[in-house]
Specification:
InterPro entries: Acyl-CoA_Oxase/DH_mid-dom, Acyl-CoA_Oxase/DH_mid-dom_sf, AcylCo_DH-like_C, AcylCo_DH/oxidase_C, AcylCoA_DH/ox_N, AcylCoA_DH/ox_N_sf, AcylCoA_DH/oxidase_NM_dom_sf, Glutaryl-CoA_DH_mitochondrial. This protein has 396 residues and is α+β, with helices and mostly antiparallel strands. Helix content is 50%, strand content 14%. It contains 11 helices and 9 strands. The chain is globular.
Protein backbone atom coordinates (compact mmCIF):
# COMPACT_ATOMS: atom_id res chain seq x y z
CA UNK A 1 0.00 0.00 0.00
CA UNK A 2 1.42 3.39 -0.93
CA UNK A 3 1.95 5.99 1.78
CA UNK A 4 -0.69 8.20 0.18
CA UNK A 5 -3.40 5.50 -0.04
CA UNK A 6 -6.44 6.33 2.05
CA UNK A 7 -7.61 3.71 4.50
CA UNK A 8 -11.33 2.99 4.69
CA UNK A 9 -13.10 4.43 7.69
CA UNK A 10 -13.45 2.19 10.74
CA UNK A 11 -16.96 0.75 10.87
CA UNK A 12 -18.07 -0.08 14.44
CA UNK A 13 -20.70 -2.43 13.00
CA UNK A 14 -18.09 -4.30 10.93
CA UNK A 15 -14.74 -3.74 12.67
CA UNK A 16 -12.92 -6.45 10.69
CA UNK A 17 -14.34 -5.39 7.33
CA UNK A 18 -15.97 -8.79 6.86
CA UNK A 19 -18.41 -7.36 4.35
CA UNK A 20 -15.47 -7.33 1.93
CA UNK A 21 -15.87 -11.12 1.81
CA UNK A 22 -19.44 -10.87 0.53
CA UNK A 23 -20.68 -10.57 -3.03
CA UNK A 24 -23.46 -8.22 -4.04
CA UNK A 25 -25.80 -11.20 -4.18
CA UNK A 26 -24.78 -12.20 -0.64
CA UNK A 27 -25.57 -8.71 0.61
CA UNK A 28 -28.90 -8.70 -1.22
CA UNK A 29 -29.93 -11.96 0.47
CA UNK A 30 -28.94 -10.58 3.86
CA UNK A 31 -30.80 -7.33 3.26
CA UNK A 32 -33.97 -9.12 2.15
CA UNK A 33 -34.08 -11.34 5.25
CA UNK A 34 -33.23 -8.45 7.57
CA UNK A 35 -36.00 -6.34 6.04
CA UNK A 36 -38.51 -9.16 6.52
CA UNK A 37 -37.59 -9.71 10.17
CA UNK A 38 -37.70 -5.96 10.82
CA UNK A 39 -41.24 -5.73 9.42
CA UNK A 40 -42.77 -9.03 10.46
CA UNK A 41 -40.99 -10.19 13.61
CA UNK A 42 -39.35 -7.32 15.49
CA UNK A 43 -42.58 -5.41 16.31
CA UNK A 44 -44.22 -8.51 17.84
CA UNK A 45 -41.53 -10.85 19.15
CA UNK A 46 -41.51 -9.64 22.76
CA UNK A 47 -45.26 -10.19 23.01
CA UNK A 48 -45.03 -13.61 21.34
CA UNK A 49 -42.25 -14.61 23.70
CA UNK A 50 -44.08 -13.35 26.79
CA UNK A 51 -47.24 -15.18 25.76
CA UNK A 52 -45.36 -18.35 24.80
CA UNK A 53 -46.83 -18.53 21.32
CA UNK A 54 -46.06 -18.07 17.65
CA UNK A 55 -49.37 -16.87 16.21
CA UNK A 56 -49.85 -16.98 12.47
CA UNK A 57 -47.07 -19.50 12.02
CA UNK A 58 -48.58 -20.83 8.79
CA UNK A 59 -48.74 -17.34 7.33
CA UNK A 60 -45.17 -16.69 8.43
CA UNK A 61 -44.10 -19.94 6.76
CA UNK A 62 -45.70 -18.90 3.48
CA UNK A 63 -43.97 -15.52 3.65
CA UNK A 64 -40.65 -17.24 4.31
CA UNK A 65 -41.38 -19.43 1.32
CA UNK A 66 -41.97 -16.36 -0.83
CA UNK A 67 -38.65 -15.03 0.48
CA UNK A 68 -36.90 -18.22 -0.66
CA UNK A 69 -35.73 -19.00 2.88
CA UNK A 70 -37.14 -22.54 3.16
CA UNK A 71 -34.73 -25.17 1.95
CA UNK A 72 -32.82 -22.29 0.40
CA UNK A 73 -29.52 -24.16 0.01
CA UNK A 74 -31.21 -27.06 -1.80
CA UNK A 75 -31.55 -27.16 -5.58
CA UNK A 76 -34.57 -27.99 -7.71
CA UNK A 77 -38.15 -28.72 -6.63
CA UNK A 78 -38.87 -25.04 -6.05
CA UNK A 79 -35.87 -24.49 -3.76
CA UNK A 80 -33.73 -21.37 -4.11
CA UNK A 81 -30.39 -23.11 -4.70
CA UNK A 82 -28.58 -20.45 -2.63
CA UNK A 83 -24.98 -20.83 -1.51
CA UNK A 84 -24.10 -22.09 1.95
CA UNK A 85 -22.84 -18.62 2.85
CA UNK A 86 -26.13 -17.05 1.77
CA UNK A 87 -28.06 -19.59 3.83
CA UNK A 88 -25.81 -18.78 6.78
CA UNK A 89 -26.40 -15.04 6.40
CA UNK A 90 -30.14 -15.71 6.39
CA UNK A 91 -29.83 -17.77 9.60
CA UNK A 92 -27.87 -14.95 11.24
CA UNK A 93 -30.56 -12.40 10.43
CA UNK A 94 -33.38 -14.73 11.46
CA UNK A 95 -31.81 -15.47 14.84
CA UNK A 96 -31.02 -11.82 15.39
CA UNK A 97 -34.81 -11.54 15.45
CA UNK A 98 -35.34 -14.67 17.56
CA UNK A 99 -33.94 -18.19 17.86
CA UNK A 100 -37.45 -19.58 17.49
CA UNK A 101 -37.83 -18.04 14.04
CA UNK A 102 -34.48 -19.43 12.92
CA UNK A 103 -35.47 -22.83 14.37
CA UNK A 104 -38.64 -22.82 12.29
CA UNK A 105 -36.58 -22.29 9.13
CA UNK A 106 -33.76 -24.66 10.11
CA UNK A 107 -36.05 -27.57 10.93
CA UNK A 108 -38.06 -27.03 7.77
CA UNK A 109 -35.11 -26.76 5.40
CA UNK A 110 -32.05 -28.36 6.98
CA UNK A 111 -33.79 -31.30 8.63
CA UNK A 112 -37.16 -32.22 7.09
CA UNK A 113 -36.59 -30.98 3.52
CA UNK A 114 -32.92 -31.97 3.50
CA UNK A 115 -33.81 -35.54 4.52
CA UNK A 116 -36.33 -35.83 1.69
CA UNK A 117 -34.03 -34.12 -0.82
CA UNK A 118 -31.03 -36.32 -0.04
CA UNK A 119 -32.61 -39.67 0.84
CA UNK A 120 -36.09 -39.60 -0.66
CA UNK A 121 -37.43 -41.15 -3.84
CA UNK A 122 -38.15 -39.00 -6.85
CA UNK A 123 -41.86 -39.38 -6.15
CA UNK A 124 -41.40 -38.24 -2.55
CA UNK A 125 -39.35 -35.24 -3.62
CA UNK A 126 -41.91 -34.13 -6.20
CA UNK A 127 -44.80 -34.65 -3.81
CA UNK A 128 -43.42 -32.80 -0.78
CA UNK A 129 -40.55 -30.45 -1.61
CA UNK A 130 -42.26 -27.83 -3.81
CA UNK A 131 -45.01 -27.29 -1.26
CA UNK A 132 -42.54 -27.21 1.61
CA UNK A 133 -40.32 -24.72 -0.21
CA UNK A 134 -43.36 -22.50 -0.69
CA UNK A 135 -44.30 -22.76 2.99
CA UNK A 136 -47.59 -24.42 2.12
CA UNK A 137 -46.59 -27.52 4.10
CA UNK A 138 -44.57 -27.33 7.32
CA UNK A 139 -42.30 -30.22 8.20
CA UNK A 140 -40.77 -31.58 11.40
CA UNK A 141 -38.00 -34.05 12.21
CA UNK A 142 -38.53 -36.81 14.76
CA UNK A 143 -35.26 -38.20 16.15
CA UNK A 144 -34.95 -37.26 19.86
CA UNK A 145 -36.90 -39.43 22.28
CA UNK A 146 -37.90 -38.96 25.94
CA UNK A 147 -35.09 -41.29 27.07
CA UNK A 148 -32.67 -40.95 24.16
CA UNK A 149 -31.30 -37.54 23.21
CA UNK A 150 -27.52 -37.60 22.82
CA UNK A 151 -27.61 -41.36 22.09
CA UNK A 152 -29.99 -41.78 19.15
CA UNK A 153 -28.68 -45.31 18.57
CA UNK A 154 -30.69 -46.33 21.64
CA UNK A 155 -34.02 -45.18 20.18
CA UNK A 156 -37.05 -47.26 21.05
CA UNK A 157 -39.36 -46.13 18.27
CA UNK A 158 -39.64 -49.07 15.94
CA UNK A 159 -41.24 -50.02 12.65
CA UNK A 160 -42.29 -53.51 11.65
CA UNK A 161 -43.46 -54.86 8.34
CA UNK A 162 -47.05 -56.03 8.06
CA UNK A 163 -47.68 -57.35 4.59
CA UNK A 164 -46.84 -54.52 2.22
CA UNK A 165 -47.15 -51.87 4.94
CA UNK A 166 -45.05 -50.53 7.79
CA UNK A 167 -46.42 -50.13 11.32
CA UNK A 168 -44.72 -47.60 13.61
CA UNK A 169 -44.83 -47.36 17.41
CA UNK A 170 -42.95 -44.98 19.69
CA UNK A 171 -42.50 -41.48 21.02
CA UNK A 172 -40.41 -38.49 19.96
CA UNK A 173 -39.77 -35.48 22.18
CA UNK A 174 -38.83 -31.79 21.83
CA UNK A 175 -39.86 -31.65 18.18
CA UNK A 176 -39.90 -28.16 16.67
CA UNK A 177 -42.90 -27.50 14.38
CA UNK A 178 -44.47 -30.82 15.44
CA UNK A 179 -48.09 -29.83 16.07
CA UNK A 180 -48.31 -27.63 12.96
CA UNK A 181 -46.45 -29.94 10.60
CA UNK A 182 -48.12 -31.44 7.56
CA UNK A 183 -45.46 -34.14 7.40
CA UNK A 184 -43.07 -35.59 9.97
CA UNK A 185 -39.77 -37.24 9.10
CA UNK A 186 -39.63 -39.96 11.76
CA UNK A 187 -36.61 -42.18 12.37
CA UNK A 188 -37.35 -45.66 13.68
CA UNK A 189 -35.57 -48.91 14.36
CA UNK A 190 -36.32 -51.76 11.92
CA UNK A 191 -34.97 -55.27 11.54
CA UNK A 192 -32.68 -53.89 8.84
CA UNK A 193 -31.44 -50.91 10.85
CA UNK A 194 -32.63 -47.36 11.47
CA UNK A 195 -34.84 -46.04 8.68
CA UNK A 196 -36.61 -42.75 7.97
CA UNK A 197 -40.37 -42.57 7.35
CA UNK A 198 -42.62 -39.81 6.05
CA UNK A 199 -45.68 -39.58 8.29
CA UNK A 200 -48.40 -37.22 7.01
CA UNK A 201 -50.44 -35.31 9.58
CA UNK A 202 -53.80 -36.93 10.16
CA UNK A 203 -52.53 -40.49 9.78
CA UNK A 204 -54.49 -42.68 12.24
CA UNK A 205 -52.52 -43.31 15.43
CA UNK A 206 -50.26 -40.27 14.92
CA UNK A 207 -50.60 -37.17 17.10
CA UNK A 208 -48.39 -34.23 18.07
CA UNK A 209 -49.43 -32.61 21.35
CA UNK A 210 -47.70 -29.28 21.96
CA UNK A 211 -45.26 -28.93 24.87
CA UNK A 212 -46.12 -26.06 27.19
CA UNK A 213 -44.46 -24.31 30.13
CA UNK A 214 -41.15 -23.66 28.37
CA UNK A 215 -38.86 -20.88 29.60
CA UNK A 216 -36.79 -20.91 26.41
CA UNK A 217 -37.73 -20.81 22.73
CA UNK A 218 -41.13 -19.57 23.82
CA UNK A 219 -41.93 -18.08 20.39
CA UNK A 220 -41.62 -21.50 18.80
CA UNK A 221 -43.87 -24.53 18.43
CA UNK A 222 -42.42 -27.52 20.30
CA UNK A 223 -44.21 -30.85 20.44
CA UNK A 224 -44.15 -34.50 21.34
CA UNK A 225 -44.79 -37.00 18.53
CA UNK A 226 -46.93 -39.98 19.50
CA UNK A 227 -47.06 -43.03 17.22
CA UNK A 228 -49.48 -45.79 18.20
CA UNK A 229 -49.81 -48.50 15.53
CA UNK A 230 -49.31 -45.95 12.76
CA UNK A 231 -49.77 -47.79 9.48
CA UNK A 232 -47.90 -46.48 6.46
CA UNK A 233 -47.59 -47.76 2.91
CA UNK A 234 -44.28 -49.18 1.69
CA UNK A 235 -43.53 -45.99 -0.25
CA UNK A 236 -43.45 -43.95 3.00
CA UNK A 237 -39.90 -45.08 3.80
CA UNK A 238 -36.93 -42.98 2.64
CA UNK A 239 -35.28 -45.46 0.27
CA UNK A 240 -31.75 -44.09 -0.02
CA UNK A 241 -30.36 -44.57 3.49
CA UNK A 242 -30.21 -47.09 6.31
CA UNK A 243 -28.57 -46.47 9.67
CA UNK A 244 -27.66 -43.43 11.72
CA UNK A 245 -25.78 -41.91 8.80
CA UNK A 246 -29.13 -40.58 7.60
CA UNK A 247 -30.30 -38.52 10.57
CA UNK A 248 -26.76 -37.51 11.58
CA UNK A 249 -26.03 -36.02 8.15
CA UNK A 250 -29.24 -33.98 8.45
CA UNK A 251 -28.18 -32.77 11.90
CA UNK A 252 -24.78 -31.70 10.56
CA UNK A 253 -26.50 -29.55 7.95
CA UNK A 254 -28.75 -27.98 10.60
CA UNK A 255 -25.84 -27.39 12.99
CA UNK A 256 -24.12 -25.40 10.29
CA UNK A 257 -27.05 -22.96 10.34
CA UNK A 258 -26.70 -22.67 14.11
CA UNK A 259 -23.05 -21.62 13.72
CA UNK A 260 -24.33 -18.52 11.92
CA UNK A 261 -27.58 -18.11 13.82
CA UNK A 262 -25.97 -17.92 17.25
CA UNK A 263 -23.97 -14.94 16.05
CA UNK A 264 -27.23 -13.23 15.11
CA UNK A 265 -28.50 -13.50 18.69
CA UNK A 266 -25.11 -12.29 19.93
CA UNK A 267 -25.14 -9.34 17.53
CA UNK A 268 -28.56 -8.25 18.69
CA UNK A 269 -27.41 -8.23 22.34
CA UNK A 270 -24.13 -6.50 21.48
CA UNK A 271 -25.91 -3.75 19.56
CA UNK A 272 -28.31 -3.23 22.46
CA UNK A 273 -25.39 -2.97 24.87
CA UNK A 274 -23.54 -0.44 22.69
CA UNK A 275 -26.62 1.75 22.30
CA UNK A 276 -27.39 1.55 26.00
CA UNK A 277 -23.81 2.39 26.94
CA UNK A 278 -23.93 5.49 24.74
CA UNK A 279 -27.14 6.85 26.25
CA UNK A 280 -27.36 5.59 29.85
CA UNK A 281 -25.84 8.13 32.23
CA UNK A 282 -24.41 7.45 35.67
CA UNK A 283 -22.07 9.61 37.71
CA UNK A 284 -22.68 12.47 35.32
CA UNK A 285 -21.78 10.84 31.99
CA UNK A 286 -22.66 7.92 29.67
CA UNK A 287 -21.54 4.56 31.08
CA UNK A 288 -19.88 3.86 27.72
CA UNK A 289 -17.24 6.39 28.74
CA UNK A 290 -16.02 4.24 31.63
CA UNK A 291 -13.07 1.93 31.11
CA UNK A 292 -14.71 -1.23 32.46
CA UNK A 293 -17.69 -0.83 30.13
CA UNK A 294 -15.42 -0.25 27.16
CA UNK A 295 -13.39 -3.33 28.07
CA UNK A 296 -16.59 -5.41 28.07
CA UNK A 297 -17.70 -4.01 24.71
CA UNK A 298 -14.27 -4.61 23.17
CA UNK A 299 -14.20 -8.24 24.31
CA UNK A 300 -17.76 -8.78 23.06
CA UNK A 301 -16.89 -7.32 19.65
CA UNK A 302 -13.81 -9.52 19.34
CA UNK A 303 -15.72 -12.74 20.03
CA UNK A 304 -18.72 -11.72 17.91
CA UNK A 305 -16.74 -10.99 14.79
CA UNK A 306 -14.36 -13.90 15.27
CA UNK A 307 -17.47 -16.09 15.36
CA UNK A 308 -18.86 -14.55 12.17
CA UNK A 309 -15.48 -15.03 10.47
CA UNK A 310 -15.46 -18.69 11.56
CA UNK A 311 -18.99 -19.14 10.21
CA UNK A 312 -18.01 -17.57 6.91
CA UNK A 313 -14.97 -19.85 6.61
CA UNK A 314 -17.09 -22.95 7.24
CA UNK A 315 -19.62 -21.71 4.69
CA UNK A 316 -16.95 -21.38 2.01
CA UNK A 317 -15.78 -24.90 2.83
CA UNK A 318 -19.34 -26.19 2.52
CA UNK A 319 -19.75 -24.46 -0.85
CA UNK A 320 -16.52 -26.12 -1.98
CA UNK A 321 -17.70 -29.54 -0.78
CA UNK A 322 -14.92 -29.67 1.83
CA UNK A 323 -16.75 -29.17 5.12
CA UNK A 324 -16.36 -32.08 7.56
CA UNK A 325 -18.79 -32.85 10.41
CA UNK A 326 -15.98 -32.30 12.93
CA UNK A 327 -15.56 -28.76 11.61
CA UNK A 328 -19.28 -28.12 12.08
CA UNK A 329 -18.91 -29.32 15.68
CA UNK A 330 -16.01 -26.88 16.06
CA UNK A 331 -18.23 -24.02 14.91
CA UNK A 332 -21.31 -24.98 16.89
CA UNK A 333 -19.35 -25.50 20.09
CA UNK A 334 -17.49 -22.20 19.85
CA UNK A 335 -20.15 -19.90 18.51
CA UNK A 336 -23.03 -20.87 20.76
CA UNK A 337 -20.82 -20.83 23.83
CA UNK A 338 -19.43 -17.38 22.95
CA UNK A 339 -22.89 -16.08 22.02
CA UNK A 340 -24.18 -16.94 25.49
CA UNK A 341 -21.24 -15.15 27.09
CA UNK A 342 -21.89 -12.07 24.93
CA UNK A 343 -25.56 -12.09 26.04
CA UNK A 344 -24.60 -12.39 29.68
CA UNK A 345 -22.09 -9.56 29.41
CA UNK A 346 -24.66 -7.38 27.64
CA UNK A 347 -27.01 -8.08 30.52
CA UNK A 348 -24.47 -6.66 32.99
CA UNK A 349 -24.16 -3.47 30.94
CA UNK A 350 -27.93 -2.99 30.87
CA UNK A 351 -28.20 -3.69 34.59
CA UNK A 352 -31.77 -4.20 35.77
CA UNK A 353 -33.08 -3.24 32.32
CA UNK A 354 -31.30 -6.31 30.99
CA UNK A 355 -34.06 -8.56 32.30
CA UNK A 356 -36.85 -6.53 30.68
CA UNK A 357 -38.52 -7.60 27.44
CA UNK A 358 -38.20 -3.97 26.38
CA UNK A 359 -34.73 -5.12 25.37
CA UNK A 360 -33.83 -8.36 23.56
CA UNK A 361 -31.00 -9.46 25.85
CA UNK A 362 -32.68 -11.80 28.33
CA UNK A 363 -34.88 -13.30 25.59
CA UNK A 364 -31.81 -14.17 23.52
CA UNK A 365 -29.95 -15.45 26.58
CA UNK A 366 -32.72 -17.86 27.55
CA UNK A 367 -33.19 -18.99 23.94
CA UNK A 368 -29.49 -19.73 23.59
CA UNK A 369 -29.64 -22.04 26.60
CA UNK A 370 -31.74 -24.33 24.37
CA UNK A 371 -29.54 -23.78 21.33
CA UNK A 372 -26.53 -24.76 23.46
CA UNK A 373 -27.87 -28.27 24.01
CA UNK A 374 -30.08 -29.07 21.03
CA UNK A 375 -28.61 -30.75 17.96
CA UNK A 376 -25.65 -31.83 20.06
CA UNK A 377 -24.76 -30.79 23.60
CA UNK A 378 -21.47 -29.10 24.48
CA UNK A 379 -20.17 -32.44 25.74
CA UNK A 380 -21.03 -34.27 22.52
CA UNK A 381 -19.25 -31.73 20.35
CA UNK A 382 -16.25 -31.75 22.68
CA UNK A 383 -16.06 -35.53 22.30
CA UNK A 384 -16.41 -35.31 18.52
CA UNK A 385 -13.43 -32.97 18.45
CA UNK A 386 -11.57 -35.03 21.06
CA UNK A 387 -11.89 -38.15 18.95
CA UNK A 388 -10.80 -36.27 15.82
CA UNK A 389 -7.74 -34.86 17.63
CA UNK A 390 -6.59 -38.07 19.35
CA UNK A 391 -8.04 -40.86 17.25
CA UNK A 392 -9.54 -42.32 20.44
CA UNK A 393 -13.28 -42.79 20.96
CA UNK A 394 -14.37 -41.55 24.41
CA UNK A 395 -18.12 -41.68 23.82
CA UNK A 396 -18.48 -44.97 25.73
Amino acid sequence: MSASAKLPAFDPADPLGLDDLLSEEDRAVRAAVRDWTTRRVAPHIAEWYENGELPGIRELARELGDLGALGMSLTGYGCAGASAVQYGLACLELEAADSGIRSLVSVQGSLAMYAIHRFGSEEQKRHWLPRMAAGEVIGCFGLTEPDHGSDPAGMRTHARRDGGDWVLDGRKMWITNGSVAGVAVVWARTEDGIRGFLVPAGTPGFSAPEIRHKWSLRASVTSELVLDDVRLPAEAVLPEVTGLRGPLSCLSHARYGIVWGAMGAARSCFESAVEYARTREQFGRPIGGFQLTQAKLADMAVELHKGILLAHHLGRRMDAGRLRPEQVSFGKLNNVREAIEICRTARTILGANGISLEYPVMRHATNLESVLTYEGTVEMHQLVLGKALTGLDAFR
